[in-house]
Amino acid sequence: MQVILIGLPGAGKGTQAAKIQAEFGIPHVSTGDMFRQAIASGSDLGRQVKAYLDSGRLVPDETTVAVVRDRLQKPDAEKGFLLDGFPRTVPQARALDDLLQELGKPLDRVLYIHVDPSVLKERLTGRRICRSCGATYHVKFQPPKVEGVCDVCGGELYQRPDDTEEAVATRLEQFKQTEPLIAYYEERGLLKRIDGEQPIEKVHEDVVAALAPFK
Ligand code: AP5
Ligand code: ZN
């Protein structure tokens, strides 16, 4: 199963992707996570992308496509994958088309998790992430059992540096580059809209129903 998740920053892509990965057994490929890991490890890629992530601007297409190309050729991607945060521009979507054709893996579904921008500030400023395993929480909507501590691994929870008000505003603005992809995939009959303003478990039910035919 090959699936793409599209949505504004904070729409709930990462939250739903973690659940789909667990339930459908396909890898969660998040360009944002890969860039954050590169930054944490101090690699060349990390040094190249850090200023983009910190400010909320998009990393150049060439760099992003190269990272995804490598990732989708790893053995665990043979059974399919869930792309979270990629593609985000029309050139990225075209590059993905070419790559999927090379790999002989057609797209099954594009899920557009739709939310009104007005809900995002609270979601993003309340988000907390585990430093060790990457699990996502929210101080109000998805609190850990013990404040500041990951339920899964006991790791320390932190706030992403791009969850400041200024970077969030830039990230929302950058979504203009992603909007054309909605029509791009709708025209091919691949797009399914999901109401992302419902509680997390209800969104998950809708996601599972949309993906069930491809399991
Ligand atoms: P990326 O990591 O992809 O960030 P994003 O798109 O801004 O998305 P987020 O991770 O912020 O949000 P999400 O939709 O996953 O929400 P979440 O589930 O955490 O990208 C970061 C940066 O990397 C970019 O700015 C760019 O610089 C670079 N980058 C990445 N991909 C790129 C690309 N393809 N090209 C170029 N540059 C790229 O949920 C948010 C919070 O809300 C959580 O606390 C969660 O608990 C809570 N929540 C979730 N669902 C609900 C719900 N239904 N109700 C209530 N609360 C909820
Ligand atoms: Zn953890």
TrEMBL record:
Keywords attached to this entry: ATP-binding, Cytoplasm, Kinase, Metal-binding, Nucleotide biosynthesis, Nucleotide-binding, Transferase, Zinc
Name the predominant localization. Answer: cytoplasm
Record: residues binding AMP: 31, 36, 57-59, 85-88, 92, 160, 171
What role does this protein play?
Answer: Catalyzes the reversible transfer of the terminal phosphate group between ATP and AMP. Plays an important role in cellular energy homeostasis and in adenine nucleotide metabolism.
Gene name, Swiss-Prot/TrEMBL: adk
| Residues the entry annotates as binding ATP | 10-15, 127, 136-137, 198
Q: Which reaction does it catalyse?
A: AMP + ATP = 2 ADP
Binding positions for Zn(2+) per the UniProt entry: 130, 133, 150, 153
> Where's the Adenylate kinase active site lid domain?
127-162
Protein name, per record: Adenylate kinase
Its domain description in UniProt is: Consists of three domains, a large central CORE domain and two small peripheral domains, NMPbind and LID, which undergo movements during catalysis. The LID domain closes over the site of phosphoryl transfer upon ATP binding. Assembling and dissambling the active center during each catalytic cycle provides an effective means to prevent ATP hydrolysis. Some bacteria have evolved a zinc-coordinating structure that stabilizes the LID domain.
PANTHER family xrefs: NUCLEOTIDE KINASE
Record's GO cellular component terms: cytoplasm
Q: In which pathway does it act?
A: Purine metabolism; AMP biosynthesis via salvage pathway; AMP from ADP: step 1/1
GO BP: AMP salvage
- Read off the CDD domains from this record: ADK
EC number(s) per entry = 2.7.4.3
Oligomeric state and partners? Monomer.
Native source species: Alicyclobacillus acidocaldarius subsp. acidocaldarius (strain ATCC 27009 / DSM 446 / BCRC 14685 / JCM 5260 / KCTC 1825 / NBRC 15652 / NCIMB 11725 / NRRL B-14509 / 104-IA)
